[in-house]
Specification:
Layout lengths: L1 H20 L7 H23 L10 E6 L2 E4 H32 L2
Antiparallel strand pairs: 1-2
Helix pairs in contact: 1-2, 2-3
């Protein structure tokens, strides 16, 4: 569970850096990189949560039970969907950066 704590710290640090960069320009390549890192870390958290359910009876609500001790809990889906949203935001930032660069070249 140490890995989860470290990933939470990196996620919070990255979000604070995104907020700090919004003072001068929000649509920069560093923010794209930060959102992708956040997405990968949330995907890792989802995988760790899923693996931690193997062979346990599990407490709490099961979202999807696959049988044979394999099941998805709510946190697994929350981490997974949030990671997908981070990747979508990163792609949106890439397109916004391209539009911004095109507009900067326009007289």
């Amino acid at each position: 569970m140490f890995i989860l704590g470290v990933s939470y710290f990196i996620i919070i640090k990255s979000l604070i850096e995104v907020l700090g960069s919004s003072e001068y320009s929000l649509f920069v390549k560093e923010n794209v990189k930060r959102f992708r890192i956040i997405g990968y870390l949330l995907l890792l958290n989802s995988l760790i949560e899923f693996i931690s359910t193997f062979g346990t009876t599990g407490k709490g609500m099961r979202f999807l039970d696959l049988g044979f001790g394999f099941y998805f809990t709510v946190p697994v889906f929350v981490y997974f969907i949030t990671s997908l949203m981070s990747f979508v935001i990163a792609d949106g930032f890439v397109k916004a950066i391209k539009i911004k660069e095109d507009n900067d070249l326009t007289i």
